[in-house]
Amino acid sequence: MDKLPRWADIALIPALNLFLALFVSGLVIVYIGENPFEALRILVVGAVGSTGGIGYTLFYATSFIFTGLAVAIAFQARLFNIGGEGQAQLGALGVGLVCLALPWPHWTLALPAAVLGAALFGAAWAFIPAYLQAKRGSHIVITTIMFNLIAGALLIYLLVGPLKAPGMSPESPAFPDGAALPTARQFFEALGITWRRSPLNVTFLLALAACVALWVLIWRTRLGYEIRAFGQSEPAAIYAGISPVRITVVVMLISGALAGMMAINTVMGEQSRLLQDNVQGAGFVGIAVALMGRSHPLGVFLAAVLFGALYQGGGELEFEMPAVSREMIIVIQALVILFTGALDGMVRRPVEQVFARLRRAA
After folding, report:
1. Confidence class of residue 62 from pLDDT cuts 50, 70 and 90?
2. DSSP characters over 129-183
3. What pLDDT, on a 0 to 100 scale, did the predictor assign at position 2?
4. Which of 147-161, 202-216, 316-330 shows the lowest per-residue confidence on average (mean pLDDT)?
5. Is 4 left (phi over 0), alpha (psi -120 to 50) or beta?
6. Contact present, 242 and 229 (Cβ < 8 Å)
7. Residue 346 — very low, low, confident or very high, per pLDDT cuts 50/70/90?
8. pLDDT at 250
9. Is CB count within 10 Å lower at the N or C end of the chain?
10. Gap between the Cα atoms of 329 and 141, Å rounded
11. Phi, psi torsion values for 106, nearest 5 degrees
12. How far apart are CA 274 and CA 298, in angstroms?
């Protein structure tokens, strides 16, 4: 079968998958006795109908961009890193240790240090599964799953022990005021624009920079070429002199660093302290974001915004339409994942046939 044009693979197929997911979700909403068009209106308005809704949508999207990019870079080398949850937890630990280490006078000094801490801790947590895959043949899916659980247990131990603040809650002391990141509300109010309170912060710009940087790495550098060549054919890459061990370790280090940087958004940008659950499932959502975005930074960005809208709009839908429970919102999100992942071929094959006929007719 002829390959699809790049634009169809990145935009058309995901759009059709999304349409089918929303269509099936609408049938489910009809089944419980509610109006699917009204539900869709509430979801969209809740996600982008106000400055507060946009702020929350982009806040969630920021986390999903980092975890989506982490999975995407691994996919380019045909590695399935599903350890983003644990790598982000260790990234949170790195952010917390950096922010608590000094009485930071200003966020412009604290942020670069936090980026370094998050990236190093996330990369370090990804290194061990990478080494086991490259040197010992241990399957990276199994090891990264195990390391998710270990990361969670390690963080709990630290928060009820060495890092615990006085009191009953398992959390660290509050970060210094100088480590607080500027929010979107502060930025727009400085321009004289009214903006409702939300946790959207400067990390969103960092996520956009990560998208650009990853695009440059994958498609404009020698290392990126080696990663893509290794992902397309390991025997051919070896024949060309590309080391599988090196590529596996380097890709997983970059992937872990990106996942770890997700914690800057939540830990430093929202919580201003280290809590027990800093990731809230974003590591697993990143898998769906990378699948829907076809492992391309632009696609990852668009898919992350979509899932951010589903999270924010879903919360509004649950409030405005009580018959649509939180579990129903999870079903809608799961349907999007299902159609963009497992059922992708159901849409892809007919579209490929259409394009093949068009080429023959031309």
Report:
1. very high
2. HHHIIIII---HHHHHHHHHHHHHHHHHHHHTTTTPPSSSSS-PPPPPGGGPPPB
3. 54
4. 316-330
5. beta
6. yes
7. confident
8. 97
9. C
10. 27
11. -160, 150
12. 31
Domain extent listing, the chain: 62-293
pLDDT at residue 1 greater than cutoff 50: no
Alpha carbons 92 and 94: distance in angstroms, whole number: 5
Instruction: Give Cβ neighbours of residue 257 (< 8 Å, ≥ 6 apart).
Output: 118, 119, 120, 122, 123, 126
The rounded distance, in Å, linking the Cα atoms of 115 and 111 is 6
Residue by residue, DSSP assigns 171-214 as -PPPPPGGGPPPBHHHHHHHTT------S-BTHHHHHHHHHHHH
Full-model pTM: 0.93
Tokens 């999870």, located at residue: 330
* Cα 275 to chain centroid, rounded: 19
Token pair, residue 64, equals: 């999903």
Enter the tokens of residue 242: 């590309």
